[in-house]
């Protein structure tokens, strides 16, 4: 009889669960749709009307607070055009997108931050060529070097949207002013400054390349940035598309130039320890010793502005700011390393093309920039709409005529290298392996 | 008297001379030192979880700058993390309450369906004689070897494109949208759980004494009556342990949910949301501590309330299987 009471108990449990389920099923939310309005604010969106009541899905890696702002930025577009944008951001974007596309469940539009991945989808025939309107809009608003990254086999697949500038060195303006140090304008000045700072008893550089599964990428950015300065944009392109081997003497020279900073315990690692502590320090934390004057400089992209503890003033006269990583030879122009995402489409319905065109427009860039924390290479972007000083500086650099822009090389290389052996190689390099040994190893891993 | 009697009684009730090696081990494991050691191990094992719990109540700046043990020298507690995570309005802060419901909606049918189907199948495979029964059982058993990762893309394609062979559509695409995606997830979880569930329940059901079935049949019971009145009550412990297994697996599952439910507000479960909580650049992990505890609550309730069955189900399996 002891047995018979238990099924009853289980039954009670099952009933409770079933009740919870039905309660949950009842609480579905209502979808409100709004018609298009022809008010004066909508004048700018006239070109996008005519597809009232349609929905376009967008999938991207942008999430969290930045996704909130993004969704807010296209609210007016949605109201005026009548097209609903269903946005989804995921941290597993790069892994999930191929699965969804192969499974026939592709989003209408994806924001792909890696031209290498974009090319893969384009080669597989999954992407739809951008419409003529999108192309015209993109050509009017973006520099050719940007559009080239989204052009595969002569076909143009989508305009860039947000961008970031990686060639920045964070520092403390207060400390610099106090000690009378000046922001260096050339590489040599920067090295002299490093010596001066080291002489003053402060470690001049801090660095951290820990980033979970992606540990090593901040070091690859270092190498790429210096590659552009040490060898110039043409050699950089050859290196990225593998027309020169990864262990070419030119690459060795650039890597050794980085090594003079990152592998010298006289210069690193302010606030954390010796050279090896670089591999165990997360890139999010690596810059914080600047606020405590334990370290003077930290090379990291513009988006690092969001990583400072709350209440930190990021400005030229604030607690922290960034200067442009100086060129080796200023006469050769200003190399800029950066990244960005491309808005490509997996569907060619008219409303999808309209959203794609809108995202390439000046309105889209300005609407998003007004909400803060955003940079784009869009030429129509007005600097006055960009609020915080570091983003202003980034936009100015991107729009500078003498700037030589190059996309983050590890995003262009095959994933096996750019998101694999290059990262791992850098960790081993910091941990003491010689430059040639590491570069030989990466060269050997390049897909044949 | 009081000092000697218990010892005598203890020796009398315990096996006086353990004959086998297992018996001796068992006796040693029942000693006081063993108990103390196991309590210490349990405490050490709990420390990280305890630290997580404490962290979830600490203010953001404290979490990021100091370890949870500093709480004892500088006690500062806040409900802000839980508030953010559960009821925050923006998509950057949790809204976990919403995803919590999604998790329940996904998990409960994904537990009930495979158990119901597996119990029926296991009964049929053990007590109904039909041709090819053993081969069918072996085939089901063998399916356990197939990793579910291999089935993800084909299954997704099955939902979104349907099945067609040589241009003839055998099954149309399901075309599920928004809340309809729950069906995909249930379907997927049910498929992936069935081989193991059938195997486990078959082991139990086939071990039931045949006389029971014969007696029931003599009394005029058909298969459905036998299944309901004889088999089901007897395999309750097995059903419960299977339910716990499946519940924990589905509740904690990220991969299947990510692919079949997507990351949208309507269908994504807690796990998918938790994975996004740390922020685009992974710096917002004060939310993770609170989020982790919100997601632990239900499995904890389920496990504690069904725990008795779990242990019994495992033991029965080990002896009989």
UniProtKB/TrEMBL annotation, chain A:
Keywords: Signal, Transport. Residues 1-25 form the signal peptide. The keyword Signal applies. It comes from the Bacteria. The keyword Signal applies. Pfam families: SBP_bac_1 (PF01547). Belongs to the bacterial solute-binding protein 1 family. This is Alpha-glucoside ABC transporter substrate-binding protein. It comes from Asanoa iriomotensis. The lineage of its organism: Bacteria, Bacillati, Actinomycetota, Actinomycetes, Micromonosporales.
Automatic annotation (TrEMBL), chain B:
This is Sugar ABC transporter permease. Residues 100-306 form the ABC transmembrane type-1 domain. It is a multi-pass membrane protein. PANTHER family: ABC TRANSPORTER PERMEASE PROTEIN MG189-RELATED-RELATED, OSMOPROTECTIVE COMPOUNDS UPTAKE PERMEASE PROTEIN GGTD. Its main location: membrane. Residues 9-23 have a biased composition (Low complexity). PROSITE patterns: ABC_TM1. The chain crosses the membrane at residues 34-54, 99-123, 135-163, 183-205, 226-251, 288-306. Residues 1-23 are annotated as: Disordered. Keywords: Cell membrane, Membrane, Transmembrane, Transmembrane helix, Transport.
């Amino acid at each position: 009889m002891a047995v018979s009471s238990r099924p009853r108990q289980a039954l009670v449990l099952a009933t409770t669960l079933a009740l919870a389920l039905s309660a949950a099923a009842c609480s579905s939310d209502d979808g409100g749709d709004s018609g298009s309005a022809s008010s004066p604010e909508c004048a700018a969106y006239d070109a996008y009307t005519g597809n009232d009541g349609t929905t376009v899905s967008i999938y991207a890696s942008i999430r969290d607070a930045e996704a909130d702002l993004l969704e807010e930025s296209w609210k007016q577009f949605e109201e005026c055009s009548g097209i609903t944008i269903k946005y989804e951001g995921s941290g597993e974007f790069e892994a999930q997108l191929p699965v969804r596309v192969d499974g026939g469940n592709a989003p209408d539009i994806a924001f792909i931050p890696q031209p290498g991945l974009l090319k893969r989808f384009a080669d597989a025939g999954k992407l739809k060529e951008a419409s003529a309107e999108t192309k015209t809009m993109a050509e009017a608003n973006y520099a050719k070097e940007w559009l080239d990254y989204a052009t595969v086999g002569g076909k143009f697949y989508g305009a860039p949207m947000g961008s970031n500038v990686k060639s920045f060195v964070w520092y403390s303006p207060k400390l610099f002013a106090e000690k009378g140090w000046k922001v260096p304008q050339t590489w040599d000045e920067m090295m002299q400054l490093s010596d001066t700072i080291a002489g003053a008893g402060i470690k001049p550089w801090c660095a951290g390349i820990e980033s979970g599964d992606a540990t090593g990428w901040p070091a690859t950015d270092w190498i790429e940035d210096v590659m552009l300065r040490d060898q110039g944009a043409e050699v950089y392109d050859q290196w990225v598309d593998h027309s020169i081997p990864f262990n070419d003497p030119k690459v060795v020279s650039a890597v050794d130039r980085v090594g003079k900073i990152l592998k010298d315990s006289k210069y690193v690692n302010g606030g954390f320890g010796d050279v090896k502590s670089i591999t165990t320090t997360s890139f999010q934390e690596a810059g914080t010793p600047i606020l405590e004057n334990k370290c003077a400089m930290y090379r990291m992209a513009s988006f690092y502005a969001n990583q400072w503890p709350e209440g930190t003033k990021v400005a030229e006269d604030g607690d922290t700011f960034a200067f442009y990583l100086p060129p080796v030879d200023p006469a050769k122009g200003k190399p800029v390393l950066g990244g960005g995402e491309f808005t490509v489409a997996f569907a060619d319905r008219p409303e999808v093309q309209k959203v794609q065109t809108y995202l390439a427009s000046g309105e889209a860039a300005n609407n998003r920039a007004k909400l803060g924390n955003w940079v784009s290479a869009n030429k129509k972007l007005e600097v006055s709409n960009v609020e915080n000083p570091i983003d202003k500086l980034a936009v100015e650099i991107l729009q500078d005529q003498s700037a030589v822009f190059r996309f983050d090389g590890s995003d262009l290389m095959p994933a096996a290298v750019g998101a694999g052996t290059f990262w791992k190689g850098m960790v081993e390099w910091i941990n003491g392996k010689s430059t040639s040994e590491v570069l030989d190893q990466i060269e050997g891993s390049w897909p044949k | 008297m009081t000092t000697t009697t218990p010892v005598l009684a203890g020796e009398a009730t315990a096996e006086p001379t353990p004959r086998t090696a297992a018996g001796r081990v068992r006796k040693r494991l029942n000693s006081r030192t063993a108990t103390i050691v196991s309590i210490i191990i349990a405490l050490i094992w709990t420390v990280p979880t305890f630290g997580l719990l404490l962290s979830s109540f600490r203010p953001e700046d404290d979490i990021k700058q100091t370890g949870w043990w500093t709480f004892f020298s500088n006690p500062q507690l806040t409900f802000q993390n839980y508030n953010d995570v559960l009821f925050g309005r923006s998509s950057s802060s949790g809204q976990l309450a919403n995803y919590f419901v999604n998790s329940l909606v996904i998990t409960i049918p994904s537990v009930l369906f495979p158990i119901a189907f597996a119990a029926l199948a296991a009964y049929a495979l053990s007590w109904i004689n039909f041709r090819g029964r053993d081969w069918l059982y072996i085939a089901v058993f063998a399916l356990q070897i197939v990793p579910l990762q291999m089935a993800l893309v084909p299954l997704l394609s099955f939902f979104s494109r349907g099945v067609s062979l040589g241009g003839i559509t055998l099954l149309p695409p399901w075309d599920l949208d928004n809340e309809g995606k729950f069906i995909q997830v249930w379907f997927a979880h049910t498929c992936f759980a069935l081989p193991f569930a059938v195997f486990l329940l078959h082991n139990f059901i086939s071990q039931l004494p045949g006389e029971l079935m014969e007696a029931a049949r003599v009394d005029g019971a058909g298969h459905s009556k036998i299944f309901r009145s004889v088999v089901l009550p007897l395999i309750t412990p097995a059903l419960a342990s299977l339910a716990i297994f499946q519940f924990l697996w589905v509740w904690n599952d990220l991969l299947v949910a990510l692919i079949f439910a997507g990351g949208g507000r309507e269908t994504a479960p807690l796990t998918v949301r938790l994975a996004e909580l740390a922020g685009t650049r992974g710096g917002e992990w004060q939310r993770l501590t609170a989020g982790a505890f919100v997601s632990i609550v239900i499995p904890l309730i389920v496990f504690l309330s069904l725990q008795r069955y779990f242990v019994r189900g495992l033991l029965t399996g080990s002896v009989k299987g």
